[in-house]
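Pair request: fold both.
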Amino acid sequence: MLDRWRDPTSKARESLDVALPQATGFSREVVRAGLAHALQGWTGNALRAVVQRELGNGGGRDRQCTLAAGFETTSVLLAGALPTPTLLAIVAPLAVGSPVLVRTPSGDPVTARVVASSIAEVDATLGACVEVVRFGAGELDALDIFLSAECVVASGSDATISAIAARIRAARRFVAYGHRVSIAVLGPGALTSSALPETCQRLALDLALWDQLGCLSPIALYVVAANPSAIDHLATGLAAALARAELQIPRGRVAIAAAAAFAHARAEAEVRAAAGRRVAVYGSPKDPWCVVREDTDELREAPLYRFVRIHPVADLAGLSAALGTLTPHLAAVAIDGFGADSPSVAQQVAGLGASRVCAPGRMQAPPLGWHHDGQGILTPLCRFSDLEVD
């Protein structure tokens, strides 16, 4: 089924191509590009490799083996509007033999039903193990029935996760994916005249895909030990790259409140620039993107929808302090420009709490088996039994 989804002419992809823009507000170009980018490595073989890696049994060693089994039922409470997390959230319980009850998110009522339909087309029996439901946030009786499954998987804000946890009865497995954000960290090598154009192009792709609304979208760029003019050149180049990206994968609809937050953040940066700070705003008020060149490492509001701030930071030791309370929420960090020091930098960044460290341009294309929130894809969905045979 995953191999079919990788085909842009498949029924599932064509269904999303038509219905998802209307339902979510993403442009059709963003949907096409985002799915093509994200699904590159999501193959049937990749899923089998994840099963083997996480659940492979060592039955031939020391007369001991480990049995893994999915729960009798898994309820999946979805959030957001990106289609790939929905696809994986439905496929993962099935891979461990657990039927799935799925509640569609308000931001995307389409993808879960397309996934269920595509599974049924491949295997009718397996398709019968997926049930997609929809009910309102205020329908607490329906929610409590939904949460009575032996395993509950939920995504959403930290407040949503806390509210769900409070309603789950004891002796239920609860797998939670709360609020997460991503950033990029650049070293001197990414800012050279020869490297800068590619750096900007890759970062613009990470920002433009899914209109910066996913947990893997960078909300800020941190530039380590760079002189001010190099940061200015980066901001200029990134603004130009976002302008080009808009021509190929235009931004979709923006709700009134989100548009107001975007405009407010831009105007606030302009006020600081007018006050004599070394702050610069790139792009006009009419542009569907904005780059702010900041003069400190102070973390500020991230209104999303292709709005990004570039912060200077003295060194990696200061990065943790600059991120402050953001570190427990780090999903991915893109690093570039550190040359031979890249492995060491990756380890330092991982130490800040990031569950994924990658190159710019790859933030929106995680491997199928990446450790989302530091967890395995399948192991949280299973019961394990160690059999020790004399």
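--- second member of the pair ---
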Amino acid sequence: MLCVISTDIKKSSSLWKKNFNNMFKALQWHNAILRACFNKFGFKICDSSPEGDAFIASKNSKDDKIAIECIENIIYLMNYARSKTFLDVGSGKGYENKIHIRIGLACGKKTTDVAKYKAQGVTKSGKVCSKKQLHTVCSNKIVFKSEQAEITCGGWEKHYNYSGKTIEVKIQEGKVKWSDVKKFYFMPSTIKRKGMVLFIHNKCKSTTGYCGKASTIVDISNKLSKTGWIAIKVKRDKTAMLINLNITTDKDAKKEFDKISNKTVDYCAAFGKFNVVLNKDFANSYCFTPDAFGDTVNAAARMHNALVFIKKPEGIKVTETSRSSLNLGSGNVFIYKTQKIKL
């Protein structure tokens, strides 16, 4: 039996907007807790994890007891970290100022859906490395069910959601100690860049939300990687995230969006400043696995066949939209929709 645990941070976009530096530091403690617990209980973390601030980890087991124990340890350590202010982002109590997570679990018969995408590294100066690696896409029905359990979980402190049923868990000190967590804590290097962020969404016809294969997303990501795009991660069967550091003007962003748009998938893009994170787990000393965080990334994730500009562009017809309507805080953003797609 395959058991999959998925986690996600409650209202993370608001936390990033509140204080980026505090959130980034707190996120590394969050990551250390999850890595320490998954390591202790033998769960393999998905290649694409963490997906920003979400984790997927799996383990073959005869029953779900070890998964439940792993979750109990995660909850205990998250509570402990909050009490010690390690997960503070703003002043005050609650998920508006501290990191809280939802946790989902699904166990069942393993289904094989193997797809690999070409991941590319970045140097400390922000130059794209020539070397690429093949990363596996974590995509099957058990992964999907674990995420659905997490998404529908009404709370995030004292229970988790298991295949549609909320189960109370024991909040007690477990096998993973804080000294174990500290071994997994590190602050990766970051570089500030202006560029374009792109999310690709598969048009899933399944009523369950599970498309069943990742080949379409992988093929498009690999094709775009030949034209300046860096495939950061392909997220299961439906979504991929890419960045392009060569696009530095509003005009070039519009031109690129017009060029790549088509009807086979949904394109969600943004242009502006964001932070490129250089993770130290790439295959060599000068080339790092990149990730991206910040306002521009969050804005891109909320588009639908549209390109959003964080600042108003000159000479481009855009629609001014309130940030609050997109759950992006206060102020306005500017949305451009290509004429090549009939929306």
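Observation on the second member. Confidence is low (pLDDT under 50) at residues 155-161.
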